[in-house]
Amino acid sequence: MPFKPPEVVKCPKCNQNVYAAEEVPAAGKKWHKMCFKCGLCKKMLEAMTMAEHEGNIFCKQCYARKFGPKGYGFGQGAGTLGMDTGEHLGNKSGSEMTNKPNYAPPPGAGQHD
User: Fold this and answer.
1) How many CB atoms lie within 10 A of CB 107?
2) Where in the sequence does UniProt note compositional bias of the Pro residues kind (predicted)?
3) Domain extents for the chain?
4) What is the DSSP string of 23-72?
5) Could you tell me the pLDDT band of residue 17, with boundaries at 50, 70 and 90?
6) Which CATH superfamily groups domain 9-67?
7) How much is the pTM?
């Protein structure tokens, strides 16, 4: 039987060959250790601290900010109650929620005697 070399896999980030000694398996792909970092903040990731969205990888914090639910009560810690709309993360302006009610006021509301 002829010798068959191992199949060479390409890193999804840099498209270069990934060899067994340097591979990080995650999200169904094999990455270089130095390429396995958050697509937004560039923090180095581990298989258990990453989230994948449409082929891109993120740390869980950036993933939650970019793709998670918006509004009061979501997230953890004091930093989650800010008015950050996420525009610097690619979220569109105009999609943010307001604290103003969107229903008609009751009869007589707003009238002063």
Assistant:
1) 6
2) 103-113
3) 9-67
4) EEEETTEEEEGGG-B-TTT--B--GGGEEEETTEEEEHHHHHHHHS--ST
5) very high
6) Cysteine Rich Protein (2.10.110.10)
7) 0.53
- Listed in sequence order, the DSSP H helices in the chain are 60-67
Average pLDDT score over the chain: 76
Q: Which residues pair with 55 in a beta bridge?
A: none
CA pseudo-torsion sign 74, 79, 82, 84: negative
Task: Look up tokens 């010798």; give the residue.
Answer: 3
Residues paired with 32 in a beta bridge: 23
Residue 50 has φ and ψ, to the nearest 5°, of -120, 160
Residue 23 is encoded by which pair of tokens? Answer: 């591979």
Check: CB of residue 9 under 8 Å from CB of residue 30. Answer: yes
Residue 26: both structure tokens together:
């995650």
